[in-house]
Amino acid sequence: MKLHRLDLTGFGPFRETQTVDFDAFDGHGVFLISGRTGAGKSSILDGVSFALYGSVPRYEGGERRLRSDHSFLGDPTEVVLEFTQGERRLRVTRAPEYERPAKRGGGMTVEPQRAVLEEWTGDGWLGLAAKPREVAQFLDEILGLNAQQFQQVILLAQNKFSRFLLATAAERQSLLRTLFGTRRFERYEEELETRRKALQRELETAGERVRTLLGLAERLVGQRDLGGNASEDIPATDLARRRDAVAAAGERARYRVETAERARDEAEAAATTAERVLSVALAHAERLAALDVARREWAQLDAARPAIDAARTRLRRAREAEALRAPLDAVARAEEAFRVAAEEERSAYEAWNQDAGDADPAVALETLTGDIARWTEALADEEQAAVASATIESLALDIEAETERLATFDTQQAQIPAERERLERARDAARTDAAQLPAAEARQVELRERLAAAREAASLAGELENAERAYLAASEAASQAAAEVTALLQRRVADRAGELAAALVDGEPCAVCGSTSHPSPASAPQHPAIDDDAVARAEERRDAAREAEHAAASIARDVRERHAAAAARSGGRDVAALTEEEAVAGEQVRARREAAAEVERLDARRAELDELAAAAAIERDRVATALAEHRERLTGLRATLDGLQSRIAEARGDSASVAERLAEAANRRDRARACVRAAERRAEAERSLASATADLAERLDASEFADAAEAAAALRDDADRARLDEEIRSHTDAEAGVRARLLDLELRTVDVDAAEVEPARAARDATGHARAAAIAAERDARSDAERLGELLSGIDAAREGLRELEDQAAVVTRLADTVAGRAPNTKKMDLETFVLAAELEEIVAAANLHLDDMSAGRYTLHHSDAKASHGRASGLGIDVLDAHTGKLRSPQSLSGGETFLASLALALGLAEVVTSRAGGIRLDTLFVDEGFGSLDPETLDLAMRTLDALRAGGRTVGVISHVEAMKEQLAARLVVESTSEGPSVIRQDGL
Q: What are the Cα distances from residue 632, in Å, to 20, 54, 385, 548, 661?
């Protein structure tokens, strides 16, 4: 992985965008990052870490401390990093969450965190991800290192890379676990321990099951007396012998089953024989009882025979009379029809005679029919005359209304010219006022701007006074701090003579003039000596006071400029006067806008008036045309009505109307027609009665009945005939059945004794009880044998499962104990620690390659797997072999410089091993933060040679340090400086 470019905006101490071009250091290999304390050297490394992972190595709080305190409210905060991983050149842009002014509504709002990842394609940057979560997922795949690993192997951050050397075994285990992700081995250990405990519980459960099954079997053996003659007590723990005893009892139980089966077979044979004998006896008794029943039934049938003969006679006569039912019904219907027709004829003639006297209805019917035809035509004329009269009245009303409307239209048309002239005058006056609206609005805007500027100037006046006072106070403080430094320097110079005089020795040369004679030495100072540290602290206070003075001056200047600009924009007017003028201008704008609206309203009213005049003219023409048409139609209708009334008078006669005369004639015609039709129906009914009577007489002569009354009395309905027929047939069938059954039973009961049933039943009951007892005994014996067989099978299966669980538990227990560091593990080292110890061994080997050069072969790191005391983690110790003494030393015994060299070597070795585990990624950029100040010149030279050796293959190493010797050795520099205003800037030198 190689870094190319870093842009920091509003980040850490940097307010303006600062750019670091890492590619510019490719020709130098090692470059120095220098600057005063607090200038922001480590913030460069923070920016790299934040761009890649959204976190920094120095802060627990993460993004909350990343935004520059020097940034103004509207300034952005952003980090952009370009780097190459493998063959891909990428650019990541990331910004933390921070507050900024809201774009609408005033106040502050939170700018959310954002991240963008892009890839250079040759033609431009191609976006890969645009959300923090997506960018993190892409970078995890691309980098192959998490944040902890990256900070350990690429950013050797301040005070961090020595922690690994001096850490306790537990702290070292925690760090290695994070870097190499070995918590899975701890999970393996936990899973094995859980499996061991589970198998132990299963083993106990399986053993308890075997003992429970043996107890059940032994209890059954004792209850059923299947123990045999054995009197030896078997120990409860001897499961095998207890199982064999249960098996022997099972054999005895099976023998009992065979014996019980033979006894059951004999009892079932005896019971079957007794059942058969009883069945025969019961059958004989049932036949005797059936013979008695058949004899009683025959007697009952013989007694009912006379009634059955009478029913046969009634059924025969009913069937013969049924042939005469239709003629009888026909005569009855004809008689009824004749009676009804005669009554209708009498009623019709009575109604006719009341109106017409003795006139012939047939002749009157013909005359009335012709008159009604003529009068019906006159009735239509009467209806038409009524319609014509109504239409004439309606037309007269319409003509009157239309005449009045024509007069109204003429009056309105005469008023329109005067109304149009009035609207024109009002519109011209309103248009004159509306034309002044743009000038009034411009004046209002101008006054509003001046009023806002006046209010701003009034607000800034107090702020300006405070800023001026603050600047005056800061200026006085800066002058006092400068005077203090001057006084200290003067005292320092004055005291220097006394210090030199105090060091003079007679006969020895003076360090200033070289004379061996010291006739008038200066007197020693009477107050405490002023040392360099006191001067440096005073200078720092002076510099801080100057920076505060500059900041206060900048603030005062800014407020002063803003106040002057606001006063200029207000035109020198005060807020009260401008407020009054702005109110007047607003009233004028409102009046001009109302005038403009009035112009539009009057224009609309004039257009509406023109439309109404045109519509009224059209409507007047339409009404005039309709009036002429209605007058012409009225004349024609009056002529038509005169002709209709002449024809109606002729047809009405003496009646009130044609319709009344027509109704009277229709009533007389209906009465005449009723008389004629009633006479025709009576004659037809008389003919039908004569024909039916003759047919019935002919049929009676051919039957056994003397007259119609006798035939009618013999009739029966269908249900009665069916009942008689069923009664006769049932009696006949019953006689035949009883006769056959009597004959059969008489033959089958010859030589049968009714007393043989009771002895057979007693024998059957005795053999049944014996059979039930034998079956119960056989069932109990078989149940005991089956239960013992099931228990024995369960015991054998449980013992087999117990043996398998014992074998499995032994293997899992040994493995779990070994992985957990328990016996037989002689190292007392758990699996995760063992893996980490192997990684640590490789790290130490890689580190020794660097430490050997840096310490000139004196020191060598040794991995220690010695057993730790008090339960602490074993296998993760590090010792230092001192070649001068040949003895191992604790890393804590090393001096500050020695600790730095050993820590740097160990950090480099750790980086190499971690990167190899991360897929062998190449690290082309490396940073080392502080620690060189503790080295003597010779050791520093060795450390620099080691860092210089890292340049192999094009690698670039950035070193953060205050050491002056390093500034002399490293020409390529990245200098971070604080400006007088506060924010820091970055420049690159020596390129």
A: 110, 103, 19, 113, 36
